[in-house]
Amino acid sequence: MTDIKLHRLKLSLDYYDDVMSGAKNFEVRKNDRDYQVGDLIEFLPSERGVALPKCDDRIFLITYMLSSSQFGAIKDGYVVLGIREIREAKPEVRNNNESNG
Predict the structure, then answer these.
(1) Backbone angles phi, psi at 74, to 5 degrees
(2) Stated pTM of the model
(3) Which of the pair, 55 or 28, is modelled with greater confidence?
């Protein structure tokens, strides 16, 4: 069985607000963390790469993943992650390091 990981990712305020409002349900990332469908993401609002204080504890589930091997328009080494907020109890997860982005 694969471990579920919690990825803590910095996200520019421009995109952070869109994710929190539900207007943006995907994220484009360098695949340097072995993202997997079923992993969780905690977004950290940031400005110019510096994390800002959070005002909530929302967690997002990776529901879909698309890579360059599946769709050639995606740059090699990057993935598009389909995400949705989870509201149920958070499962046991293994923390992953914070990411710049």
Answers:
(1) -85, 130
(2) 0.82
(3) 28
